[in-house]
Design goal:
The chain has 14 helices and ten strands. By secondary structure, the chain is an alpha/beta fold. The chain folds into three domains: 68 residues; 201 residues, 3-Layer(aba) Sandwich (Rossmann fold), CATH 3.40.50.300; 85 residues, Arc Repressor Mutant, subunit A, CATH 1.10.10. Keywords: Membrane, Transmembrane, Transmembrane helix.
């Protein structure tokens, strides 16, 4: 169909309809006049035949006009049928789907194979994580939670990172801002060298020889890294095969779970054998509907928002109230000469240190995320859930304790 302005379309359609019916009308009149002229004689017959020929010529011209307009507008009948079919689908499919959903899903339904502690699942599998999620699905919150629980120095490779992204990390460990793929490629090459060194050290001195060199490596938008960085694919594959043994945990983030997106063309087995696939948001719901064929699970995931997602093929519900239930006895804390816990010896980052300093200045008071956001611009850009993760992580390490649950979770110095 040729490009027409909407203001011209109606006029062209009217002209096309008029020309088409004029042709058929002229044809019928011409045939009628010829039939009438056949029964006449003399001058009357000549006049009737003349009118018939004139009418037929008018019809021919109208037919030519209709063809030109049809070329301009495209196949009108075909387009009309397609539009009607689209209109029908638009107005009937959601109704049918809604009827199926309401009839099939129980509001109180709970999955039998529910995972409540994804970290325990991941550690038990001794795998890395491939995180599948889009904007607003909670990737940052889940990544922060996972890094605190697994531990190690956190390093992020993110070419699109904004100033407020990853603000809970030491910024020297956020590599590749402003599309600096060269820096990412070099750092990944260094990671591969580091892995080789760890293999030699552990071979000579056992696990003690590599103590304190744990790292949590994050590859954001990994398909882009694969395209732009020569070392991205071997970086992921070599760490996938050997990294966990040498305390080098990797988390690769993408918006699709194909092997190609992770630089594993033709090697899907490595993706599924070395990685736990965590699907957030719509990706999890789509997987439940299309792959698992489970509409109940799809609706259950949707009802839970960001708290519910899929870990491999199993449903997971991660409630913040479960994150900070550890007590101070769960993690050893180094002590100073006086016996008082010294959090600085735990290598606190600047955010944790600010929280600890606030707690010392306000002994016995419960610090909430809202108070912290108002007290310092250091936490500007953080979500309350991200701050509560820091509270829970401090408590897990024996620094202070948490009180409350969910969005009421707070922390206080003890």
């Amino acid at each position: 169909m040729s490009e027409l302005h909407p203001s011209q379309l109606h006029q062209h359609l009217q002209m096309y309809t008029c020309a088409k019916w004029s042709f058929w009308g002229s044809l019928i009149i011409s045939v009628g006049l010829l039939s009438l002229g056949a029964s006449k004689v003399g001058s009357q017959k000549l006049w009737i035949v003349g009118f018939s020929v004139g009418t037929l010529e008018v019809g021919r011209r109208q037919r030519h006009t209709a063809k030109l307009l049809q070329v301009s507008l495209g196949d009108i009948d075909h387009a009309s049928r397609l539009n009607f079919q689209a209109w029908t689908r638009l107005r009937t499919q959601p109704t049918a789907q809604l009827a199926l959903t309401v009839g099939a899903v129980d509001a109180n339904w709970q999955p039998e194979n529910l995972i409540t502690d994804p970290v325990e699942y991941i550690q038990k599998k001794q795998k890395h994580v491939a995180l599948i999620g889009g904007t607003g699905d909670g990737k940052s919150t889940f990544t922060q939670f996972l890094s605190f629980k697994i531990g190690g120095r956190v390093i992020v490779y993110d070419s699109d990172a904004k100033p407020e992204d990853w603000n809970w990390l030491d910024q020297k460990d956020v590599i590749g801002r402003k599309g600096d793929f060269k820096a990412i490629n070099t750092a990944m090459d260094n990671d591969l060298t580091n892995l080789e060194e760890l293999v030699e050290l552990r071979g000579d001195g056992g696990d003690k020889a590599i103590a304190g060199r744990d790292r949590f490596l994050i590859g954001e938008e990994f398909p882009i890294l694969v395209e732009e960085c020569d070392n991205a694919a071997p970086w992921l594959k070599k760490h996938a095969k050997r990294g966990r043994r040498y305390k080098q945990f990797i988390l690769a983030i993408a918006q699709n779970d194909t092997a190609e997106n992770f630089g594993l063309q033709g090697d899907k087995d490595t993706l599924y054998s070395c990685f736990v696939l965590v699907r957030l948001g719509q990706f999890g719901r789509d997987y439940a509907r299309t792959k698992l064929k489970d509409p109940q699970l799809e609706q259950w995931l949707k009802a839970g928002g960001k708290k519910r997602f899929l870990v491999d093929d199993a449903p997971c519900e991660l409630d913040l109230s479960n994150w900070g239930q550890s007590t101070a006895t769960d993690a050893p804390v180094k002590s100073g000469v006086s016996g008082e816990a010294t959090p600085t010896q735990l290598e606190l980052n600047e955010y944790e240190q600010f929280i600890v300093d606030w707690g010392k200045q306000h002994p016995g008071e419960v610090l909430k995320a809202r108070i912290l956001l108002q007290a310092s611009r250091l936490f500007e850009g953080m979500q309350p859930d991200e701050i509560r993760i820091i509270f829970a992580a401090l408590a897990d390490r024996g620094v202070g304790q948490v009180e409350g649950e969910g969005d009421r979770l707070g922390w206080k110095w003890s």
